[in-house]
Design a protein that fits this description.
Length: about 230
């Protein structure tokens, strides 16, 4: 295994911020990624109150509308692949049916098994079910909710996937909460706290002024001069 540019402690630090704040920091650290690397379609979260999850992507492709076409990866191979070892993992699964979410991969059984393997949650364009029986604290961001698993099966894993506009590869760092998800480049992980602090200080100048009595456009113009470019 190649030496990583970050540690578990570095990933844990990123959990204190929501995903929009992570995106704000990435605009400073990786300005070339300002318009890429995050979900651009709505997601349906299991619970908006769950804290952000941060982990290494374990990627896969699924279908559900039809029975498997030929040989498919054994389910146990997927479990071995997705299981957390040195760092926590997040399942990032693209449903490639012409109608994503036709059948749900995620429900009581899969959420329980994956949580037991150290997986923090899932980001998918597909569907999930068993809302009242999912593993406790297991976050799922899905394209929709549906009742049946139909013919759901794994087609391929450890491959590039596109989840609602977010291109993701094996071992990418993914930060996700009920807003959506974003890929954090490995070289950006340690730089994000300082960048987020800078953005937060710039925002505070504007917010404090906007909330003050008698706030007007002239004050906003002056505040922008002092706070620097933001949003």
């Amino acid at each position: 295994m190649a030496e990583r540019l970050f540690t578990l402690a570095d990933l844990e630090v990123l959990k204190q911020w929501d995903t929009p704040t992570i995106c704000n920091g990435l605009e400073i650290v990786c300005p070339e990624r300002r318009a890429v690397g995050f979900t651009v379609e709505p997601v349906v979260a299991v619970d908006r109150k769950f804290p952000p999850i941060v982990g290494l992507a374990r990627t896969g492709l699924i279908r559900a509308k039809e029975p498997p076409r030929g040989t498919i990866p054994p389910r146990e191979a997927w479990y071995e692949y997705v299981a957390a070892t040195d760092l926590p993992t997040i399942a990032v699964i693209q449903d490639i049916d012409d109608r994503p979410g036709y059948g749900a991969f995620w429900g009581e059984v899969q959420s329980t098994v994956h949580k037991g393997l150290g997986v923090l949650g899932c980001v998918t364009n597909g569907s999930y079910r068993d809302l009242d029986m999912l593993a406790p604290d297991f976050q799922i961001l899905g394209g929709r909710i549906g009742p049946s698993h139909a013919w759901v099966h794994m087609v391929q894993f450890n491959c590039q996937v596109n989840i609602l506009g977010m291109l993701t590869n094996h071992d990418d760092v993914v930060h996700a909460d009920y807003h959506g998800a974003v890929v954090v480049p490995a070289e950006a992980v340690k730089k994000l706290p300082a960048a987020i602090d800078l953005v937060s200080r710039r925002e505070k100048v504007i917010l404090d002024m906007a909330r003050s009595p008698g706030f007007n456009a002239a004050q906003m113009r002056e505040t922008l001069k002092r706070s620097g470019e933001i949003h």
